[in-house]
Amino acid sequence: MFLIVDQSSGQILKHGLSNNTQMANDLADAFLALIEQAKLVPGEIWAAKEEVYVYLRQILRAFEPQAYLTDELPALEDVKDSMLDYFGVGMR
Prior knowledge:
- It is a single chain.
- Helices cover about 40% and strands about 20% of the residues.
- It contains three helices and four strands, in the order E-E-H-E-H-E-H.
- The longest helix is centred in the first third of the chain and has 16 residues.
- The two termini are about 20 Å apart.
- The model has no long low-confidence stretch (mean pLDDT about 80).
């Protein structure tokens, strides 16, 4: 599963299910679709997985956003916690 989350608002912008071998490709496709849909390019992109960071950084060179590899993605963690609570996983 992948999530594209706005770091400021915590809003889920795109999501999808993918196997590990297709994850980077599917995430990149979803991200490019989001750029086309919103008609804007984010100023920053954060990724917690190095594979995703490297892949997105290569694809997005034309757009020139700042890209960061980080250990924590607070907005993504909040979304995950909320989803787990909603589906009852967090209540065990």
